[in-house]
């Protein structure tokens, strides 16, 4: 029997939501939160998501990094001898939520908080036989996705999101996706169409030529987080076989996501990508010279 992951909460309209499963009359959460009052709730509600469940979602849905996953990594700003944290697959983020270094930890000590969530997820997997794991976050953005303005005072009109600014094309701050909006903001549509003309006329031919000459360039290849990407780089990541050439990057240090405009070598198109800042990517960065030499791989792990 297939068991889908569902959202659970004590209150039906607000409060803290958890990811879990319903097995007969019983419900179980990924983070091991227990309450007889937990009931299934809809996906789009005003609930705030449990932080442990949010990390558990990444653990369950993100494929491991193709270059290999370390058993433990030190937290950012600590030495290799500091306590090791278990990294979430495909991320430089510990099970405990701390940002991690790309190198491996050499210490025998392990983070107790990482161990607690790891044990909770393992128990959940054992209990939820036949768990239907949903797909993780999509690698490439949907150019037709409409967004709601911040404050959600008008859910009838959807806005086009400008990944470079982080706001709508009409400059309104955005609160979140609004795929069910029956109407579309006219200024957003007009500015988006103008931007698409520029992409197709100038950006796409230039990036296509860059991608075709990529194998002739001298590259340094290493693993790092998505927030370290810059224009001119290319990268690959788990769950997507394509090579992404970075056109523009907008990284907001207070946001958990990095917005990137990329050229997809396999599809031959320019599109928007929204990655978590701590997502582990294999970066290809051209050296200053242009002499064709074999690629070198420099890993921080």
Based on the model shown, name its key terms.
seven-stranded mixed beta sheet; disordered C terminus; 301 residues; five-stranded mixed beta sheet; 3 helices; alpha+beta
Structural account:
The protein is of the alpha+beta class. The chain has three helices and 18 strands. The chain has helices spanning 51-61, 112-127, 186-212, and strands at residues 3-4, 6-9, 16-23, 26-29, 39-41, 48-49, 131-132, 147-149, 157-158, 174-177, 183-184, 219-225, 234-237, 240-251, 257-264, 269-276, 280-286, 296-297. It has a seven-stranded mixed sheet with strand order 16-15-14-13-17-12-18. Strands 2, 3, 4, 5 and 6 form a five-stranded mixed sheet that branches. It is globular, with a radius of gyration of 21 Å.
Distinct helical segment count:
3
On the 0 to 100 scale, the average pLDDT is 87
**Dominant shape:** globular
The helix content, as a percent range, equals 10-25%
Main sheet properties: 7 strands, mixed
Beta content comes to 25-35%
Strand arrangement across the biggest beta sheet: 16-15-14-13-17-12-18
Question: Which sequence of SSEs, written as H and E, runs from N to C?
Answer: EEEEEEHHEEEEEHEEEEEEE
* Number of separate strands: 18
* Poorly predicted ranges: 290-301
Radius of gyration: 21 Å
Instruction: Give the structural class.
Output: alpha+beta
What separation lies between the terminal Cα atoms? 40 Å
């Amino acid at each position: 029997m297939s068991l889908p992951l569902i959202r659970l909460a004590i209150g039906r309209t607000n409060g803290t939501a958890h990811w879990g499963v319903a097995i007969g009359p019983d419900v179980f959460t990924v983070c091991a939160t227990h309450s007889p009052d937990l009931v299934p709730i809809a996906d789009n509600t005003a609930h705030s998501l449990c932080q442990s469940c949010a990390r558990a979602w990444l653990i369950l849905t993100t494929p491991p990094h193709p270059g290999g996953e370390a058993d433990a990594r030190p937290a950012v700003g600590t030495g290799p001898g500091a306590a090791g944290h278990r990294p979430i697959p495909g991320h430089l983020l510990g099970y405990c939520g701390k940002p991690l270094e790309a190198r491996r930890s050499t210490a025998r000590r392990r983070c107790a908080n990482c161990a607690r969530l790891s044990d909770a997820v393992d128990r959940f997997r054992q209990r939820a036989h036949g768990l239907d794991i949903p797909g993780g976050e999509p690698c490439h953005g949907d150019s037709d996705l409409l967004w709601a303005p911040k404050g959600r005072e008008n859910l009838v009109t959807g806005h086009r999101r400008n990944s470079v600014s982080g706001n709508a094309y009409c400059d309104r701050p955005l609160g979140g996706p609004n795929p069910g909006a029956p109407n579309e903001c006219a200024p957003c549509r007009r500015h988006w169409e103008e931007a698409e003309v520029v992409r197709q006329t100038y950006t796409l031919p230039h990036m296509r030529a860059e991608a075709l000459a990529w194998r002739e360039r001298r590259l340094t290849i290493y693993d790092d987080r998505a927030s370290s990407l810059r224009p001119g780089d290319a990268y690959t990541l788990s769950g997507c076989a394509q090579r992404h050439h970075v056109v523009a990057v907008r990284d907001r240090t207070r946001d958990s996501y990095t917005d990137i405009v990329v050229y997809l070598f396999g599809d031959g198109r320019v599109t928007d990508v929204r990655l978590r800042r701590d997502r582990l990517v294999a970066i290809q960065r051209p050296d200053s010279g242009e002499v064709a030499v074999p690629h070198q791989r420099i890993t921080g792990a």
